[in-house]
Amino acid sequence: MIAHPPASAARKLVLFDLDGTLVDGQHSIRATFEQIFPAFGYPKPSAEAVRRIVGRSLPLAIADLLGPDAPSERMAEAYKAHFHAMRQAAHYHEEIYPGVDATLRRLGRREDVVLGTATGKALRGINWLIERNDWHGLFTTLQGADTAASKPAPDMVLNACRETGIRPASTLVIGDSIYDMQMAVSAGASAIGVSYGYGEPDELMEAGARRIIDSFNAVEAMIDLFVEGRLDA
User: Fold this and answer.
1) CB-neighbour burial class of residue 181 (10 A; exposed 0-12, middle 13-18, buried 19+)
2) Residue 24, Cβ neighbours under 10 Å: how many?
3) 130-143: average pLDDT
4) What is the pLDDT of residues 30-45, one digit of tens each?
5) CB within 8 A of 166, min separation 6: which ones?
6) Using CA atoms, how far apart are residues 174 and 180, in angstroms rounded to an integer?
7) Which single residue of 11, 31, 143, 218 has CA 20 to 30 Å from 227?
């Protein structure tokens, strides 16, 4: 169930990346690539190569790994089918980073911020996380691989702004990849990078992060600064 925010001109929109920001999904992502690539005649990608493309929509991520001549669309469909089957297993789990659950629930009770997602996951994966973690009602807008162009295009941010009625200038993107930062900048939004995910802090700053945080427990303080207009103070 999607939340409905109260009407207020002062509201800020906060968009969260998922993999590498809220949940540590890289191991499942890599395991799926390791199954799919050999089936199409390609060697398994390295862990570092996979880490670098987390956050991109699947066809683009596969093209980044294998080049433009790879059958990216067919491989993406095979990936989604395999990942969906894996996720149905009773033991399947995507670890939530420390502080995420409690912080999201506090933010969800605030009237000055509206929460959303901006992720390379498809809506099916987003909704699975919401269901599994009982995050119902926390996110007002869900932007993912099947709602907008892949990061770093600005579309996810702009779609979320249209859905919520909040301007890009009043929007904060929180993510772990350069694609998150570039997406925010190209949309006219602000961005905060997290160092505990899959990106490097210096690369995140170069890509447009206003600040870097080392723990999700610091997110709410950064949002407070953004709401107060003191993020650059």
Assistant:
1) buried
2) 16
3) 97
4) 889 999 999 999 999 9
5) 11, 12, 13, 114, 160
6) 7
7) 143
Phi, psi of 194 (to 5 degrees): -110, 135
Tokens 């950064």 locate to 222
Backbone angles phi, psi at 173, to 5 degrees: -100, 135
For residue 54, give both structure tokens.
């987390």
Q: What is the pLDDT of residues 68-109, one digit of tens each?
A: 999 999 999 999 898 888 878 767 778 999 999 999 999 999
Region at 177 (left for phi over 0; alpha for psi -120 to 50; beta for the rest): beta
Q: Are 213 and 195 in contact (CB under 8 A)?
A: yes
**What's the one-letter identity of residue 145?**
A
Distance CA 118, CA 17 (A): 5
Question: Which are the contacts of 6, defined by CB distance < 8 A and separation ≥ 6?
Answer: 111
Strand 12-16, strand 113-118: pairing: parallel
The amino acid at 222? M
